[in-house]
Amino acid sequence: MSISGNPKRATISRMDEPTTHFGYSDVPVDEKQKLVGRVFTSVASKYDLMNDLMSFGVHRLWKRWFASTSGVRSGDAVLDLAGGTGDIAALLLPLVGERGQVVLGDINGAMLRTGRDRLIDRGLVRNLYYAQLNAQALPFPDASFDAVTIAFGLRNVTDKQAALREMHRVLRPGGRVLILEFSVVQSELLKPLYDFHSFKVLPLLGKLIANDAASYQYLAESIRKHPDQATLKGMLEAAGFAQVDVRNLSGGIVAIHRGYKF
Question: How are beta strands 171-182 and 145-151 bridged, if at all?
Fold first, then answer.
């Protein structure tokens, strides 16, 4: 096997090895996790600032809506996957209250440390736990949580179907999964503007702010490779979830998928 070019924009020449997508490139399945890890290690320190710039601050409204409509209640145990810098965990903590708990999980150590430090600086310590983990093989017993959330992280998982099955496994009967993720824009008028913003503006911002245009080029490409609303709904159902529903936000730029374990 030979890999040429920027490691974040890898191309693969070997044909006898299973591959998956890394943005618009094909890479060996066992290489994607490492490549995605490099991306988020590179952008961790500027992640929140870049999110504000990329979305004009709207990502904060998406996340607040996501949490406020999650159905998470006092006393719940919640697993927040791909928890990154802790935005979702901070919104969930008041909902679970003193009797509940939030476990912030992320595969990337740099992101997890950034999130932990930020939450500690905000005084958010009680009933909040951290775990460096792989969503495809969660280190928890069956039926451990009342809810599993993942915001803007599923598209970076190598085997999404395996991750969805794991989320189903660790949920208690009656529990729910909640996924906030970029999806397919529904308006034909909006699509050209969205594409220009994704492929011209984001890499430029990445270069100017984070000194890393390639990572933000990957992020734009990874959104286009992520399953659309209907496909992800079908994947959730295949993983065992019932009553799966989809809510588009901002014209489908992002969507919330919800499913239940019965």
Answer: parallel
